Amino acid sequence: MALFSSTERRFAQAISDLAHCNPFAPERMAFERAALGDEFDPHQADWNVRIWNRPEDWPTISPNVRRLIERNDALLDRVQSKLARDPAASGAEVRLYQDLVLFALYYHHYVLFERKIQDDQAGKPTGKVKLVDPLIQHASRYLRFADRDLAMWDELPHLIACLYQVRRAFHNIYHYILGKSEPAVRLRAVVWESIFTHDLRRYRRVLYDQMANFTTLITGPSGTGKELVARAIGLSRYIPFEASTGRFADKRADSFFALNLSALSPTLIESELFGHKRGSFTGAIEDRVGWLEVCPAYGTVFLDEIGELDPAIQVKLLRVLQDRSFSRLGETQVRRFQGKLIAATNRDLASQMRQGEFREDLYYRLCSDVVVVPGLRERMLDDPTELPDLVNHIAQRLVGDEAPAVAEEVMVSIATHLGVNYAWPGNIRELEQCVRNVLVRKEYRPAAQARPEGSDPMKALWAAFTAGELTADAVLRAYCTIVYARTGSYDATARQIALDRRTVKAKVDEAFLAELGG
Questions:
Q1: Which CATH fold would you assign to the domain 226-372?
Q2: Do residues 330 and 280 touch, judged by C-beta distance below 8 A?
Q3: Which range, 47-51, 129-133, 266-270, is most confident?
Q4: Closest to 95 measured CA to CA, from 208, 17, 7, 193
Q5: 439-442 long-range Cβ contacts below 8 angstroms, 24+ apart
Q6: CA neighbor of 127 nearest in space, from 138, 139, 119
Q7: HSE value, Cβ hemisphere, 13 Å, CA-based, for 22
């Protein structure tokens, strides 16, 4: 006896595909349409077209999904009765039935996972997750029969971990990646793949505990939110659920460790990353545990500005990526790195490799998963409403209920002083400072706007230089900035002009750099 009629099988296959698809990709709506037919409602079907400023505004179950849940529940009950009477049903049909169960478990109980996420973010003590008891009872109803248990029941702890991860990933991607333009939507879909790969079925079978072996490299202009992308990926990793204790194995709030490499000297980078032994360098008055050692198995270390990494440390990092081993500074004991590594840069690593500033072998260890973050200008060109939406979101974070009034003030200031074609060279970071400037001064005027449009910053600099209008410090700042704009590296600039790297970093003028197009 077949478990499904031909019509039921088509619906079940669409549900199976829906349960394993990328929720931010267009295919999701195609699967919903295939399952619902004429009942599919295209209005508000795409949850990418809104921005949620508050958790209570975040995606709820859409009318389409509610219809799918109702039809799925009815089909589950019918097929369950057949399956109870026919233990010899084909393996393919049983697997399809289990995918219907998977869909039901997620949508009937996703709220409990949302509560768990909020508890973790609030720092509430971890303990037995009693909220999963209803889910276990629900699963038992459909997966346990008088004469046998289905395979999915045997892997229920793993399934609970996967369902929690899916909800956490959905939550984090929406929290950290804003916007409804096509570039922003594509970015969310790409980040989902960085977490689960393009094949969620395979991920659940064999890759869920292997993703630490895939280093993610995030590229894009400065100020686009690369660290936010890293957090969305790093805080959405798989966490095992331990059935014996009723607990998840790790707490997300303590598992993301960020290190900005451009802000520290090479010695401090080594100390922060690898740890050090007392006396290994001046000022090392006690042993220190580095981030690679502190990071738990399901945690993430994020290295921002990887293009600034000293060549000697590149060799040590390569060893970490090759065999997961490292030693503290000043000792020989080999230690193991258990977590995932994410790196980010706004530099052209290909150019740096050609110049011998970045190791090719390290690059090819970093690039197993590359995420490109679009600039704000690219997003605005695709969708002009991206700017007011983002302004409103930033204002919401700063002033809460007064966000609409503040957002209106900001948009008026932008229109008055910058114009609709302003390129936002500082991207999201600049937009955030624009909102803050308007809050304080009622206007925002970027430093680069001080010069007339079309003027040449180098000609203006030369005119001031030949007129004797520059101090020695101003000359040094300008020269450091010019060389840095060409090399794209503090280390390369320091070598070229024979100065200390820290001096170069302190002297680079960000406003002049923006004028130069750096």
A1: Rossmann fold (3.40.50)
A2: yes
A3: 266-270
A4: 17
A5: 439/398, 439/399, 439/406, 442/409, 442/413
A6: 119
A7: 21
Tell me: pLDDT of 315 over 80. yes
> What does the alpha-carbon distance between residue 416 and residue 414 come to, in Å, rounded to a whole number?
5
- How close are the terminal C-alpha atoms of the chain, in Å? 69
Q: Nearest 5°: phi and psi at 438?
A: -65, -35
With bands split at pLDDT 50, 70 and 90, how would you rate the model's confidence at 147?
A: confident
Rounded Cα–Cα distance for residues 144 and 134 (Å): 15
Residue 258 host element (H or E) = strand 256-260
pLDDT: is 158 or 121 the higher one?
A: 158
- CA 367 from chain center: how many Å? 16
- Residue (of 244, 213, 249, 179) closest to 431 by Cα position: 179
Tokens linked to 244: 């014996």
For the whole model, what pTM was predicted? 0.84
Sign of CA dihedral 186, 400, 251, 143: negative
Residue whose C-alpha is closest to residue 34's, from 57, 53, 11: 11
How far from 495 is each of 171, 268, 458, 491, 503, CA to CA, in Å?
45, 20, 23, 6, 12
Residue 427 backbone class (left: φ over 0; alpha: ψ -120 to 50; beta: rest):
left
∠ at Cα 149 (106, 244), nearest 5°? 70
* 98 DSSP 8-state letter: H
